[in-house]
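Example 3.2
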Amino acid sequence: QSVLQGIILLPLRATCLIFILLVAWLFASIAIFCQRGRGSVPLKGWRRRMIRTTLSGLTRTAFFIMGFQVKVKGKVASLPEAPIFVAAPHSSFFDAIVCALTGMPSIVSRAENLSTPVFGTILSSLQPVAVSRQDPDSRKNTVAEITKRALSRGQWPQVI
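Structure, written as tokens:
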């Protein structure tokens, strides 16, 4: 019986996940379309609200479809309380759960990830701090960018 369930559930889940991914890509594309100062100026207004609500909801839905049910105990720190949010061990797709539960903050990511089809657009909408492994000054630049965002008094979203 479980094999039969797998034969039915796997294609159904995969189809739903692909649909959610494409909808997320569409919303991310709309949010960053014709944005001035892409990456150097924070998203504001309807663009930021759309990323926070739709991408967060779609990510939670995707994890639910995959069989994850996450309950938050306690209160997630707000932007004024914690402009920098640390998630560890930071080694798997579970980081996406943390992102969804904290309102889709900016993340620190490899610069190469921004050029990935579909995922790169979604990642760009989160306005990541891009780390280039080829740039010898990348570590210094990353620390400076994180510090700038943390001290922006709420203009930038939390950094994870």
